[in-house]
Design a protein that fits this description.
13 helices
């Protein structure tokens, strides 16, 4: 699939870059784009290293499957798509609400720009745990190879929504599918927008589970983290939140509070010195 999708993505990136240059949109910087390319390369290597284990685990879970899904017709693929997209929503939700996972995923959100290369600013350590969220699909009876294939397909969809070049689309499309408008909100650091629009292809999961937020023309989006990194050094970008976690763990008294810095949401603190996004919203900040 890469042989087909990579050239297509490269063409779209080049087109957006040229548009940004000639119309002075300032969507790209050299340092930011460099980090994006480093992250996608690093993620690709980690994915290759862990792919064998991923297949092994999913095939092993297949041996306990509760349904025999031997007829791979349209219904099979539609159900697999829905199951996989829901599994990704669950993974993405965990990435934003469990700080250990956020330490990995925050790399993807750390760019203060929003362009098509941000789509490949990968969470470089996600391949090490991503398969856990797709194990239930294998348990249902969907083949391991099909699960991995469907994941790749939906990832391709997720590429094009990382752009400011596309405004809001037809209301019917916006209601069902993830669009650039929805995903701009997802990458915002504004309190109003934090931890919203987690879907990859379907935005209906966010509507169902209460994580949907509409893009508001009266609330200009500020991209990046609530605490930006101010560096284009790959190691500083990738390990930024890991270092923050370590500093918090060192200050926490007792093993339980130290563990909480790994499993509680980002912003949680044992002494109230920091706030999670939900706490800040409740306080009206």
């Amino acid at each position: 699939m890469l042989s087909y999708t990579v050239p297509f993505m490269a063409i779209l990136i080049l087109a957006e870059l040229l548009f940004s240059h000639f119309y002075n949109r300032k969507l790209y910087t050299k340092g930011d784009t460099f980090i994006n390319l480093v992250c996608t390369s690093w993620n690709f290597l980690n994915d290759l290293l862990f792919r064998g284990l991923t297949f092994f685990v999913l095939i092993w879970v297949n041996s306990f499957q509760i349904f025999e899904l031997s007829n791979k017709g349209i219904v099979y693929w539609l159900l697999l798509f829905l199951a996989e997209d829901l599994a990704y929503y669950t993974l993405h939700f965990a990435d934003h609400h469990v700080r250990l996972f956020w330490a990995t995923h925050s790399t993807h959100h750390s760019s203060e720009k929003f362009n098509l290369t941000v789509a490949i600013r990968s969470s470089v350590f996600q391949p090490f745990y991503r398969f856990l969220f797709f194990m239930p699909i294998a348990f249902l009876g969907f083949d391991a190879l099909d699960i991995v294939f469907m994941y790749a397909v939906t990832q391709v969809y997720g590429f094009w929504v990382h752009t400011e070049m596309v405004g809001k689309l037809h209301p019917a499309f916006e209601y069902i599918f993830v669009t650039p408008s929805h995903h701009r909100v997802h990458h915002a650091s504004n309190l109003k927008y934090l931890d919203s629009n987690m879907g990859m292809v379907l935005i209906i999961w966010d509507r169902i589970f209460g994580t949907f937020v509409e893009e508001d023309e009266n609330e200009p989006i500020k991209y990046g983290l609530t605490q930006n990194i101010e560096s284009n050094h790959p190691l500083k970008v990738v390990f930024f939140e890991w270092n923050n976690i370590w500093q918090d763990i060192k200050k926490a008294p007792g093993i339980l509070l130290k563990v909480n810095y790994l499993i509680k949401p980002p912003g949680w603190s044992h002494d109230g010195s920091k706030k999670t996004s939900s706490q800040l919203r409740k306080e009206g900040h």
